[in-house]
Design goal:
3-stranded mixed sheet; 46% helix
C-alpha cells in the first residue's frame, strides 16, 4: 500500500477505531489515535517503530522453530503482547500486537503438541478490542 493510499484510508480506520468497543488502557487507546492522526498527516514509521509503539517491546526470536510459541523443557510459552485485535493477522505481523485468531491457533497447536506438558501464557498487554471475544 502506498503512503497516499494509507492516508486516504485513515478516516475509515479512525471511524472503525473510535466506534469499536474496547477493553484497553486509556493511554494505549490514545496512542493508537495519535498513530492514526500521524498517518493522516502522511507520517510513515518503519516496522520496528510501529511494532514497539503497539507492543512496547520487540518480539523474541525463535530461530528455525516455526511454532507460534517457545518450547522449553516441555513448557510452551505463548506470547500475548500488545494490543489484542480480532482477525488482524497481516496487521499484527507488521505492527505487533496479538491477533485473537492467531493466539487461539497457537493455544490449539500447543495442546495438540506431544512435546508440550505445560502451557504458560506470557501476557504483556494493555487490552484491546472486545469484538469477537467471549
Amino acid at each position: 500500500m502506498t503512503d497516499t493510499a494509507a492516508v486516504r484510508q485513515t478516516p475509515r480506520i479512525y471511524r472503525a477505531v473510535t466506534t469499536t468497543p474496547w477493553a484497553i488502557a486509556p493511554a494505549k487507546l490514545a496512542e493508537i489515535g495519535e498513530f492514526i492522526a500521524m498517518r493522516s498527516r502522511g507520517v510513515a514509521l518503519d516496522k520496528a517503530e510501529v511494532q514497539f509503539a503497539l507492543d512496547g517491546r520487540p518480539r523474541p526470536e525463535r530461530g528455525g522453530d516455526r511454532r507460534p510459541y517457545r518450547l522449553i523443557d516441555g513448557v510452551a510459552i505463548i506470547p500475548l503482547y500488545g494490543v489484542i485485535l480480532p482477525r488482524a493477522n497481516l496487521l499484527i505481523e507488521f505492527s505487533g500486537g496479538t491477533s485473537t485468531q492467531l493466539f487461539s491457533q497457537a493455544v490449539e497447536q500447543a495442546v495438540a503438541d506431544e512435546e508440550v506438558e505445560t502451557i504458560v501464557l506470557d501476557v504483556d498487554s494493555p487490552g484491546g478490542s472486545v469484538v469477537g471475544v467471549q
